[in-house]
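Cont'd.
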Amino acid sequence: MLYFMNASDGNFNSSTSTAPDAVCYPMSKLKGMVSKDADELYMYFDSAQAAGTDEANNTSGTDLITIEFLTNDAHKAAFRDIVEVINEPNMKNNGFAVIMDAANSVKPSNDIVAAFTILTDNPA
Amino acid sequence: MEKNEEKFLYFQEAKAGANVDADEVAMYPLSSFLGFDTQAGDTNGTTLTMRFKPMRRSALVTDEGAVGEETDAMVLTVVANSQKSVMASILDKMNEPFSRDNGFIVVANVVDSEFLNSNITSVVVTVRAATA
C-alpha cells in the first residue's frame, strides 16, 4: 500500500470531498507517473471512489497526486527516489510504504518538497 | 494484501524548451505494459513502439478515438531492423533480479543520452488525454 498524507498539522479533517488529507492505494492501482512541468510530477491512480461504474457522471476515474521538487529538470531522480520507497523490502515496512507524510516530515528525498496535493475523483 | 514490489520503466524524450515540460517524462509500472509493435508504414524500419495502459483514462471513456489512440505509446527510434535485439534486451532487464536495479529501469533518456540498448537512439513519449 502506498500512503500519502498532506496535512502538516496531523489532523485527518479535510472538509473538501475531492481533497482528503490522506489517501492510501494498493500498488496495483498506480497507473503511472508523468512530468507536469520543470519541477513537478503527477502520479495517477485508479480512482478509489469513482471506479468507472458511474457512467451518468463525467468523472475521470483517476486520482491524482502532484509532487514538487526543488531542482529544475530533476525528474529522473524524483521518479527513482519514489520507486525506491515503493520497493522497500516488506520486512522493513510490512507493505505499508509511506511515500509522502507532511505530518511527520517523511518524503522520498531532500529534493522533494514536503507540500503536495491530493485530488480524488468523486462520483457526483 | 499484495506486495508493493514492482518494476518501473522510465522514458524521457528530448526537451522542447529550456526545461522539461509536461508529458516529456513518463514512467509506468511493468504491470501496465501491453506489448511491443512496429510501426506500420515505417519503411525505414527504425521504430519500435512500447504500449501501456493509458494512465489518464478510465473505463468511463467510450470514445476510443482514432486507431492506436487507446494506449499510451513510447515510440523508440532504433537502428534499422534491430527491433528483435532491442526487445530481447528490454525483456532481459524486466526479468533481472531486483537487486540489480531496485525496480527502476531506464529504457530511454534522450536528455542524458542514456539508453537500455545501444541500438536505441531516441524516444517520443505520448500520454493520451483523459478523453479521446
